[in-house]
Design goal:
By secondary structure, the protein is α/β, with parallel strands linked by helices. The chain contains eight helices and seven strands; from the N terminus they run αβααββαβαβαββαα. It has a three-stranded parallel sheet. The longest helix has 14 residues.
């Protein structure tokens, strides 16, 4: 994977380059430097004070941890990705949970796999509103032609992220509806408690 990323213009940073890049992306308060936002790799490298090979399009910063002491695990707003290595799916889930807990709770995550079980295991383990399977992340979580998500630039993150909704926010969330309600021709019948809770009662009986 790393070989393919490099072939596409990625540069795996050395420890020295990573330190210089960190110093130019964030100030001492952890705030992002506006001068690097949406800038090409060459311009950012010049600001950071290191040279890069011709054709470099983005940076790959090797990382192992997450949280304030590992700023590359958070939002970067520039052509930089943190590069983690996971031993297995369980370790990948641990890393992803840590990253999202730092910055990204409720937002989105992605996985490339042919195993639906792995995708479901990740979905169950994360506090995330969207799990993209075998799709480019940024182009897909906001809805696109190849998936069923509604197209938007506002992604609800649910209570995980302090939002009131966790779906893709669209025009329907920005208008008011008046619901006119009439009696149903036939009222719904509420099942008895024995019917509603039969499965729970059965499990309770089995335990006793």
């Amino acid at each position: 994977m790393v070989t393919k990323l490099v072939a596409r213009g990625g540069l795996v940073l050395s420890a020295e380059q990573k330190a210089k890049l960190q110093a130019v992306i964030w100030n001492e308060k952890g705030q992002i430097n506006a001068r690097i936002v949406a800038q090409p790799a060459a311009a950012i490298a010049e600001l950071a004070g290191f040279s890069i090979p011709a054709g470099t399009e983005f940076f790959l910063a090797p990382e192992t941890g997450w949280g304030p002491s590992h700023p590359f695990s958070g939002e970067k707003m520039c052509v930089t990705a943190a590069l983690y290595r996971a031993r297995d799916l369980g370790h990948a889930i641990e890393i992803t949970r840590g990253i999202q807990a730092y910055q990204g709770s409720g937002h989105s995550a992605g996985i490339y796999t042919s195993d639906k079980g792995s995708a479901l295991a990740l979905a169950h383990a994360l506090d995330t509103s969207r799990l993209l399977v075998n799709q480019p992340q940024a182009a897909s979580n906001s809805g696109n032609l190849w998936n069923g998500l509604r197209q938007t630039f506002s992604l609800g993150c649910g209570s995980w992220g302090g939002n009131s909704v966790n779906h893709n926010v669209t025009w329907r969330d920005l208008v008011n509806f008046t619901w006119v309600s009439y009696n149903l021709p036939e009222p719904k019948v509420l099942p008895s408690d024995d019917v509603l809770f039969a499965r729970v009662k059965d499990r309770t009986t089995d335990r006793t």
